[in-house]
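Fold sample X.
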Amino acid sequence: MPDGVHQSLILVILVPKHNDEKFSVLYEYKPYRKDDNFFYFDQPNIFNLARRGFIIAKVGICGTGSSQDVPIECEYTTQELDDCEHVIKQLADYSLSDGLVRMYGHCAGDPCSTYNDCDGSMICLNGKCGDVGSTVCNTPCTWIGHCCGDSCSTYDDCDGSLICVNGKCSSDSSSNGGGDGTCSPSGVLQGTHTLCNTENFSTCCKSNVNYTQYTCSPSSTSSAILTLNSFREGGDGGFGGACYGAFYPDTQRVVALSTGWFNRGSRCGKMITIHGNGKTTTAEVVDECDSVHGCDDEHAGQPPCRNNIVDGSPAVWQALGVSKNDPRYGQLSVSWND
């Protein structure tokens, strides 16, 4: 950069068939996750685009990942934007580039797993970036293959509060979370921008984005999502566990349950059995994965949990045999029981 700082770059280049062949560049400017396990999630898209004749460039914003300098206090500062323009110019001047540099990966219709994967005010809806209210079934979904419109046979085949209607996962506006086993949203929390702990693929709240709230969880525990959380002091779990106000080392098998399953602390201190990745383990319930509140210091700047979450410590993931290099690390379909 003009100020002498070196930014870190992952560059996927193509071998030209002849000396004059040039390629357009697809450019992604990453404030985080350029070097972590999310890269493995991106790999199929990267190589698919490369096979279509694009050079792929993933650049880490200064002060993040393996780039130099110190983190910038505010998002999208003048320095960030200036650096972005300089990188674009360098990519346009690259010897194999045809001079065209396009940014990709965070626009409407692009794949996503969390709200942070989408540009501007867009959020992650059913595995794709989109605007709130842009689809009839706009319940956030990250269990890919079990989202709105996907094939199903039973309620357990569908993510979160979605239910199986005529062989397709869909939302049911007539459901009240009663005796039929479903769980409908109880309200909406408007997001505010606050300091956020992004450890373990955590989603951060965005200002003026509406986040779905739930006071219930599905009656069935056979289609839960295991997420990753550090319960140690200073970890992305925020304050001490809701059960005892305590912190726990990453080596201890502990979990937080979505509000409905947490059931006002009735499962505190109890061991649950978790089935996933062809293995089984046990873990102690020590915290609530709050499905109602969020976007504050207590919740580490993260939005309310989905209603079918088992938030497990690293030790739980290790016991299920899912390593950090596994693209499923951080989000895994599981079932559990008391």
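Fold sample Y, listed below.
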Amino acid sequence: MKIVAYGVRQDERPYFDAWQAANPQIELQLEPGLLDETSAALANGADGVVVFQQKSYSGTILQRLSDLGIKNVSLRNVGVDNVDAAMVKKLGMKITNVPVYSPPAIAEFTVTQLMQLLRRTKEYERKFAQQDFRWAPQMSQELNQQVVGVVGTGNIGRAAIKIYQGFGAKVIAYDKFHNEAIEKQELYVDSLEELYRQATVITLHIPLFTETTHMLNEQAFAQMNDGMFIINAARGPLIDEQALIDALDSKKVAGAALDVLEDETKVFNRDLKGKTIDYPVFSNLFARDNVLISPHTAFYTDISVKNMVNISLDSNKELIETGKAKNLVSFR
């Protein structure tokens, strides 16, 4: 049995090495480059591939793998919105993901980002860099006084709810599919519109589908309270970035923390020192004192990375051996 892993980073290698040591009967080939139309050839002779990237798994890439006889593909992350679902079905491929690698990692990150917005740390850091150590006028707000609207009550959303409740914030939630434990707490509101009206903070924890693309748009922002805080560590296209800029300009939105962007591959996980960034919306947001941008690192902890490697490899091994896997993705 042979598995080829693409996009392997140095920080992942110890976990790949440990898995290889525990599975010496399997040939594991590690490739630092991402899977694309050319690098697909590196998987020749393999039974499956393990991948991680924000770039698209296009129909052409999947066809190249299929032509090599590879039908088993395991993602080291949860999101599958960048996979050509139609081609997966056409080629009879099997895709697994890592639906749960560390919900607390992402939940904790989103809460800490909100707290930085509330305490206006970016503004203080700018002042300190100029040797201005005065308090005013950066008076901050308290988390325990916020009404936090959690959109999506899956594993990450529920982890976030526990943390917010621990800080004494009032939590309300919306999800088309109710969780029994959250329902017992009577946290659900009936509609997104109701959540927009009640919340002072909105934090997104939902997948990207056609119907959720630009769910926070001009119309949605118009329904919110003035001075809203927006947190997104889910998927960039959930937010219409130009509409967010307009909402920031009008002070409808008091601050935003974005761990994901619509065109994040232009900037995230790249060293752009001394280079011109051709992403005007990013530059606009990045320059603002009340916007925090992080490079899709909410997940990035030792526990998360270890789980992403181990679960994806185990899933690929299971696919190859049995044709089944508990983390098999069903594309609609």
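Sample Y note: The mean pLDDT is 96.
Also: The chain has two domains: 2-101+302-322, 103-293.
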